[in-house]
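The step that takes the researchers longest sounds almost clerical: writing a folded protein down as plain text. The outcome of that step, for a single protein, is printed below.
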Amino acid sequence: MHEIERLLATRGVIARRDHPELDTTLQYLVRRGDLIRVLPGIYAARDQGMSLQTRVSAVRCFDPDAILVGAVAARLSFWPELQADVVECAVRHSRAPQTGYRFTRRHIPSDLVVSRSGLRLTSPALTALDLCATHGGDAIDQALRSRATTLAQLHRAMELTAARVGNPTKRYLLLDSRDEPWSTAERKLHRLLRKAGITRWKANRPVVLDDFTCYVDVIFSNLKLAIEIDGRLFHTGAEVFETDRWRQNKLVLDGWCVLRFTWTMIEEQPETVLAMVREAIEMLTAARG
């Protein structure tokens, strides 16, 4: 019993094949309800059996070659808030269906596999591309915003998985991400600016203000024009609200012109947004002679 308690405390699960000397005790504890079966031959404490952490740990014991993919891979690498109800795994051989899991036979190039604490999962680049089917451009935005990957790595992942279903949509989203948006609202504004022929801007670039460095959503460096976007996905919460206002004040005091748009303004009044951007460009260009 003490050995089982120690193993559960350190590993979260027990694999019967690794501890044949505990087999009789394990069976007794399962019958009594103290342990539950997570995967064939893999057991966990009753109160932890179906938690995501326990199910992920069980994969490592059940099939060391399995690769975590999809939402669970994103949650473990660059998107900790993402809900992952099912532990999705890419495996070499067919597996029988298991509650809380989805096993899929799939070859993943070794260059697109990373290891985290003994677990194997798809790289952030491939994970973001895989999630495009369910989360659209938000998956790419999140991966870029967290700096877990780069556009170059995303394109490389596309090259290495050229035969995957859904690649035309992914290629479109990657093209749409060429200016590295960090939110859906930013992505929409980038489209507007490109379509309107407005150039010489960069997205999510650092501005150093004395001892303070901030990232501006869209920046015209030559004009000291900054555009800040309150997107529905990213710019939420009281703490972020306060931080954004401090940042805007510092930019203004440093001589920057700051325009601020919301998701609704970009979505419902795009022409007005563009008109204000053009007016600011003209005003600042004239002021600089």
Q: What stands out?
A: The radius of gyration is 25 Å. The chain has a mean pLDDT of 90. The longest helix spans residues 270-287.
